[in-house]
Amino acid sequence: MSDKWQIGKTEISSRLFLGTASYPSPDILRASIEAAQPGLITVSLRRENAAGKGQAFWDIIKGFNIPVLPNTASCYGVDEAVTTAQMAREIFETNRIKLEVIGDDYTLQPDIYGLLEATQKLIKLGFEVYPYMTDDLVLAQRLVDLGCNILMPWGAPIGSGRGLNNIYALKQLRERFPDKTLVIDAGLGAPSHASAAMEIGYDAVLLNTAVAKAGDPAMMAGAFAGAVKAGRDAYLSGIIAKQDSATPSTPLLDKPFWHQEKGSG
Amino acid sequence: MQITLNSNALEIEGTISISNLLMCKGYKDKLVAVAVNGEFMPRENYDGYILQDKDSVEIVAPMQGG
């Protein structure tokens, strides 16, 4: 069954968003996108030489006819991120921007102050901002106050494969922002991480390294697609509450020998 | 005059617009975006902007990203 849904102003058909970096080859990138059937594909901008390497990459992505989400990856300052977003809008012809303002080299943790400043500027310029953020509740509120309808907290540092480092904080965000679109962005390593994010009610997950660096990226892309669907279906189905004691799943009523007196034959 | 193009020094004789720079350097018909001195330069301004001495030009294109 198709799960059409809307993120921002875009209608898409998958809750898995896939990055395009670090694949062993263009053919493997293509096979991975085919296996994942992602709702959004993330892309970036880099300096171009006259040889036009970027054009060949873009030809592959265009062929899928899947909406793209340009990013401001590796931007460390507000002005740099805003200029990059403007260049991305012209090239990719979309107002969507995955806003990254990095504050720390070691963890690639977002600079939350720069993120807020850049968000404010980009929203004024008409962008639909997808902020790459930590799982901080107050930061989320500030971003919402600025006009963000989509929040993208990290599960763990980019490329770490650690999964959902702070499930408590991530659940808090879901509970406190029931009407906002929440996407786990970064840090996932295994399909079970994606499924766990969906089971707690996140709207989508965005990942790249877990697929691109897998032994078989295309197979892993398919595994993530299945996990995202399983997690979403589980969330919608209503997961049972945990309890401390056992409850027999087989009915006890009319069980043979039930309550038979010891020694009564 | 001297400008920088993607951080490489470039000597220019006379005056040159962004459009002409793109053509001379092999970017004609390529999908690129431009910033000058850190500011976004919209396509419609390529003809009208004449590069100045010490201008820093960035030319970018689509690339893989996560």
How confident is the prediction overall: mean pLDDT of chain A? 94
H/E topology pattern of chain B: EEHEEE
Radius of gyration of chain A: 22 Å
Q: Calculate the mean pLDDT score of chain B and round it.
A: 95
Question: What's the arrangement of strands in the largest beta sheet of chain B?
Answer: 2-1-5-3-4
Compute the separation of the termini of chain B in Å: 39 Å
* Major β-sheet profile of chain B: 5 strands, mixed
The number of helical segments of chain A is 9
Could you tell me the radius of gyration of chain B in angstroms? 12 Å
The unreliable regions of chain A are: none
* Strand-pairing-aware structural class of chain A: alpha/beta
Structure description:
The complex is a heterodimer of chains A (265) and B (66). With 265 residues, chain A is an alpha/beta fold. Chain A is 39% helix and 17% strand. Chain A has helices spanning 26-36, 53-62, 78-92, 112-124, 137-146, 167-176, 191-199, 209-212, 217-237, and strands at residues 5-7, 10-12, 16-19, 40-47, 68-70, 96-99, 128-133, 150-153, 181-185, 204-207. Chain A has an eight-stranded parallel sheet with strand order 5-4-3-10-9-8-7-6. The longest helix of chain A has 21 residues, at 217-237. The mean pLDDT of chain A is 94. With 66 residues, chain B is mainly beta. Chain B is built from one helix and five strands, in the order ββαβββ. Chain B has one helix spanning 18-24; strands at 2-5, 8-11, 33-36, 39-41, 56-64. Chain B has a five-stranded mixed sheet with strand order 2-1-5-3-4, with no helix packed on it. The mean pLDDT of chain B is 95. At the A-B interface, β4, α2 and α3 of A face β3 and β5 of B.
